[in-house]
Design brief:
Blueprint: E1 2-3, E2 6-15, E3 28-38, E4 43-51, E5 61-71, E6 79-89, H1 92-95, E7 100-107
Antiparallel strand pairs: 1-2, 2-3, 3-4, 4-5, 5-6, 6-7
Length: 108
């Protein structure tokens, strides 16, 4: 939703693994919030996802993300895109990985 270039989004994400043993505790949920602004030459969006009990009972997780989309003026509907994000997991040993950083550069 937006007004005058400003956008926002809020949501609830449920991850379900039908058929997995309930003892594995794979099912979990996250809440998400995002805000963005269209500067005309670029759209910048910042978001955060939060879970009180992530995959496999690995505890609280936080996933902040910053994304940018830049239109390619010569080709209508095409844009360069990219994001940086980091996943913070409270119980890394349970999650079987350390907190991780990710990035993406692409064309949409």
């Amino acid at each position: 939703m937006g007004r005058s270039g400003f956008t926002w989004d809020a949501g609830f994400i449920c991850y379900a693994y039908p058929g997995a043993s309930s003892g594995l505790d794979y099912d979990f949920w996250k809440v998400q919030g995002a805000v963005g602004y269209d500067f005309g030459s670029a759209v910048v969006t910042s978001s955060i996802n939060y879970s009180t009990d992530n995959f496999g009972n690995s505890g609280k997780t936080v996933y902040p993300k910053l994304a940018v989309d830049v239109p390619i003026l010569a080709i209508k509907g095409l844009a360069l895109s990219g994001h940086v994000a980091k996943q913070y997991v409270k119980k890394n040993a349970v999650f079987v990985t350390v907190d991780y950083f990710e990035y993406n550069i692409g064309v949409t």
